[in-house]
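Mods, move this if it's the wrong board.
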Amino acid sequence: MQQYRDENLMLVSAVERYAQKHRIPTASSFDIFRKYGINTLIRKHYNALHTQPLEESFYFAEDIINRHQNEN
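Not the wrong board. C-alpha cells:
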C-alpha cells in the first residue's frame, strides 16, 4: 500500500513539475504523460526511481517525452 502511494507521489510531482516548466495546465501535462505511457513507466521503474531525489521522476519523464517527440 505504501509503495502505491509513493508511486502516486512520484507521478503527481513529475506531472506538476512538467506543467510548471512548460507553462501548461496540469491537465495538459497529465494528458502528455498518458499519451507516452509515463504513468506506467514511473510505476514500472519505481524500485530504481524511489532511491533517487523526487525530482528524478520529472527528469525521467521529460527524457522519455523528448525522445518520443524527436522521433516525429
